Each structure stands twice: as C-alpha cells, then as structure tokens.
Amino acid sequence: VSPSRDDEDAVSLARLTGRRAYSMIHTTHNGGRAFDIVVPIFTGDRFSGSVTVTIALTAMLADAVPWWIAEQHRISFVNSAGTTLASKSRVETEEAEADYTLAFDPPGHGLYLAIAPYRTKTSLVHNSLVVAIVVLALLSCASLLVAYRHMRGRIRAEEMTRRHSEKLARNARLITMGELASTLAHELNQPLSAIESYATGCLNKLDSGDYTANEMRAALDKLSVQARRAGQVVHHVHEFVSRREPKIGVVDVAALLRDTLAFIAPAARRYDVTLQSEIADDLPNVKADQILLEQVLLNLIRNGFEAMVETPPEDRVLTVSVMRREGGIEIAVADRGCGITPEIAERMFMPFVSTKPEGMGMGLNICRSIIESHRGRLWTTPRPGGGTVFAFTLG
Ligand SMILES: Nc1ncnc2c1ncn2[C@@H]1O[C@H](COP(=O)(O)OP(=O)(O)O)[C@@H](O)[C@H]1O
Ligand SMILES: [Mg+2]
C-alpha cells in the first residue's frame, strides 16, 4: 500500500522506531473518517517497506458494535473538539448526552470513544463499553493480521520472481556456452576439412611415389597454416572462458548443488536417469565463481547421462556427493556408465577429444581449466560396481 500524505509521518515514525505507528484521522475518498496503522517490515536490519491498514471509523463501528448495544446506546468517535466523526445509533438524529468518553488507542491523536445511553443508565453501560472496546481492538488486530499475511505473501512472491529472473539470467549464460560451442564447431569446420584434404593429398602423393620435396613442403606448409588457424580459434575460446569477469564470491555449495540438480532434472528424465545427491551437513562455504562452478557440474552430469545410454534403465543412477575435505570440499559425480578405456583416459581432457558422434570434446577441457583456475584439482576413477567417478576439490 503506498502511503498517502496523511500517513507519511506515520511511515517515517514506524521506520524510525521499528514499531507500529498511527496516522492522524483523515477523510477517506468516500467522505468517511479513518486512521491508518502502519507496521514496518524489516528484512534483517534493512527497512524494506511497511504495511498500512486503514481503519474506517464508521465501518468499524458498524461491524464491531453489536446491535444489542446499539439498540440502547449511541456509540461514537469524537475528536478533542467534541465533533462526532462517526457513530452508530438506532436513530441517526437523536441527540444524547455522552455519558462516558474514553480515549481510544491510538492515544495522542485526540480520538475518543463516546457512549451515551438512550434511556436509563444501567450498569450495562459499563459492560457494553468494555465489550465494544474489546471488540474494536480485536477487529483492528484481526485486519492488521490479514493485511500482514497478505503482505508477507507478496514479499515472498516478489522474492520468487527475483530469484527466477536471476535463474533466467544464469540459464541465458549457459545457453551462451552452448551457442559458443556451435559457433566454434562452425569456425573449426573450415580449417579442419582443409587440413584433412591437404593430408589426404600428401598421402596420395606419397603412395604414388610421384612427388617432389617442394610439392610436399608447399602442401604441408598450407596444412600447418590451417592447423594454426584452428589453434587460434581454440585459444579464443579459452580466452572467452577465462577472461569473463571473475566473480569470486562466497558460495553455499549445498544450495548450488540443489539448484543445479533442479536445473538438470528435465534432462535426467529424458535420459531416464535417477538423480541422487549426498550432501554432508557440515560443509564450509567456499570462495568460487558460482556460474563457472555450475558449468562444471552440468558438464560432468551431462557426460554421466551420456555414458549411461547403454546401461539398463533400472541401473541408470547418477549420484552427486559433496563432502568436507581438509581445507575445503570435494564434489564427486558418479555414474553407472560405460567406464573409460585407458586410451581415452589419456586424452579426454584435451580439447576436441570426443568419442561421441556429435561430441564437441570441449566439456572436460573447460571443466579442468575452471577447476584449476580455482586452485582445485579434477580427476577421475573407476566406480566400484561399474561406471565412472569424476571428482574435484575446492578450497
Ligand atoms: N562419465 C563418463 N563416462 C565415460 N566416458 C566419459 C565420461 N565423461 C567423459 N567421457 C569421455 O571423455 C570424452 C570427452 O568428454 P567431453 O570433453 O565432455 O566431450 P564430449 O562430451 O563432447 O564428448 C567423451 O567423449 C567420453 O569418451
Ligand atoms: Mg561432454
């Protein structure tokens, strides 16, 4: 609720004192009198807004004063000048001498509750006065509570929206990596096919025995130019990855892992893989670049999925575990996939080494660069019972 001029003071007061504050009596858009109760909301120590509840005096009397009291008494709010601001009575015009007046909470704003019996004074007056006040107080508390709940819900919804857009930004970043990969493949296609045709040409010449050293040299020169060009493209990728503004911050690894698993869950369903996580509960926070860390996890998890396509569906379980380790943490991604043959084990961290028909072969290379730039270590071991474990440390 945005503050009107009337309760700006009350908002400042609420903000300053950290307690609820009351506005002056003011006139509402439909001509009635009302006052506002302002409750400040703090997120930690930071003032993040306030809830304002407007209590309309007439409506309050109408709702809160039971008919059996109104039957016999005129109950009204009067200001310090004696002007009636709102009242509930059986007969509107009937004048009655106020018998009891009582300063009403909020004090200090000159609001009084006046009650005047129409007929005889009885002890009922006293009781009804008490009842009326209690009911009024309850009513204002109840409406405040409702408004407060509503506001809390809204704050929570806003928080969710904010987190969601952060997530979108992050996903956009991941998509950029994907796009980068396809651009790269495109860029590399040309030099690689040129290299292949020069190499084939040279081989043919060699086989035919009909060649001169100069011819061979010229072809090999051109080949090496193309290879250099390919090398430059790769170099650019590395630069792109490492030159990204490093955003080293304190990372809650458990939360990051949960986010990542949630992000990858749809892919897991497509691969028919069950995701498991084992998160130790004494984890220290680590200093790292959150987005790059996620990138590593996603790459390793995806590799795990891809390694399990031949695994019977009931065995396709991928487990990500985080545990404490001296000086930091260790994260492990374990699959039940095809395992790694010694030949590929030697080369799989090199760029463009892939055994997959559509594979880029950049994933592990990027993962290792990222982990090493965090002064961690990335390694792999066979998993007992079949499959592979990729593990890395972070300090
Ligand atoms: N979890 C795994 N299980 C078995 N082999 C793997 C695993 N992860 C990676 N590899 C091997 O390492 C190669 C390189 O992986 P990577 O660099 O991510 O490139 P890509 O996934 O594009 O092939 C893969 O082609 C595969 O042969
Ligand atoms: Mg990969």
- So how many helices? 9
> What is the molecular shape?
elongated
The Cα radius of gyration reads 37 Å
In this entry the ligands are: adenosine-5'-diphosphate, magnesium ion
Average pLDDT, to the nearest integer?
Answer: 79
Unreliable parts: 1-5
Structural class: alpha+beta
Helix content: 40-55%
Strand order of the largest sheet: 10-12-13-15-14
Strand segment tally? 15
Strand content: 15-25%
Outline the structure in words.
There is one protein chain. The strands form 4 sheets. Strands 10-12-13-15-14 form a 5-stranded mixed sheet. Strands 1, 2, 3 and 4 form a 4-stranded antiparallel sheet that branches. Residues 1-5 have low confidence and may be disordered. Strand 12 and strand 13 (328-334) form a beta hairpin. It has helices spanning 5-17, 57-64, 67-70, 123-208, 213-243, 253-270, 290-307, 342-347, 363-373, and strands spanning 21-22, 26-27, 33-43, 46-56, 73-79, 84-88, 100-103, 111-117, 248-251, 274-279, 286-289, 317-325, 328-334, 378-382, 388-394. It contains 9 helices and 15 strands. It has 395 residues and is α+β, with helices and mostly antiparallel strands. Helix 6 packs parallel to helix 7 (290-307). The site of adenosine-5'-diphosphate has 22 residues, from helix 7 and helix 9.
Which features does this protein show?
five-stranded mixed sheet, 9 helices, disordered N terminus, binds adenosine-5'-diphosphate, 395 residues, binds magnesium ion, four-stranded antiparallel sheet
Present the secondary structure layout:
Layout: H1 5-17, E1 21-22, E2 26-27, E3 33-43, E4 46-56, H2 57-64, H3 67-70, E5 73-79, E6 84-88, E7 100-103, E8 111-117, H4 123-208, H5 213-243, E9 248-251, H6 253-270, E10 274-279, E11 286-289, H7 290-307, E12 317-325, E13 328-334, H8 342-347, H9 363-373, E14 378-382, E15 388-394
Helix pairs in contact: 4-5, 6-7, 7-9
